[in-house]
Amino acid sequence: MLLLGLNTVSLAEKADAANPFTQFYNNTCVPEAKKVGLTEAEATQICECTIKTLRQKYSTEAFATLYTQYTNGDNTARRTLTRYGETCSQDVLDDILWEN
User: Fold this and answer.
1) If you average pLDDT over residues 65-78, what whole number do you get?
2) How many Å apart are CA 2 and CA 79, to the nearest integer?
3) Would you place residue 22 in the very low, low, confident or very high pLDDT band (cuts 50, 70, 90)?
4) 17: which DSSP letter?
5) Could you identify which of 11, 14, 58, 69 might form a hypothetical disulfide with 74, taking C-beta atoms 3.0 to 4.6 angstroms apart as the criterion?
């Protein structure tokens, strides 16, 4: 059931390329996660968690502003987005490590 939900989010994220959440997912989150050595599946799980959490906290407009600040090199925006990603990374990797 959880995988169905994750796949639905993933397809939705990939479908709306103009959305700032989608841009962050496709252009930043997944590539950065893979760059540090995570598999495609791990990066996808972590980034879907991150997007879900960010959507709960920010409106599309507010996130667009945050993401623009991030892409312009703003350290506060970078720390904010990193914090969300780290929280999801810990949760997802804990689940992977402790699977039966």
Assistant:
1) 97
2) 29
3) very high
4) T
5) 69
CA gap 76, 80 in Å, rounded: 6
Do residues 50 and 64 lie in contact, with contact meaning Cβ atoms separated by under 8 Å? no
Domain boundaries, the chain: 2-97
Task: Return the structure tokens found at 10.
Answer: 């993933």
pLDDT of residue 14: 52
User: How many Cα atoms within 13 Å fall on the side-chain side of residue 48?
Assistant: 20
User: At 19, is the secondary structure helix, strand, or coil?
Assistant: coil
Q: Which amino acid is at 6?
A: L
Least confident of 26-30, 47-51, 94-98: 94-98
% of the chain with per-residue pLDDT over 70: 82
Question: How far apart are the two ends of the chain, measured CA to CA in Å?
Answer: 18
> Do 92 and 52 meet the contact criterion of CB atoms below 8 Å apart?
no
C-alpha count within 13 angstroms, C-beta hemisphere, residue 88: 22
Q: Which residue has the tokens 């920010």?
A: 58
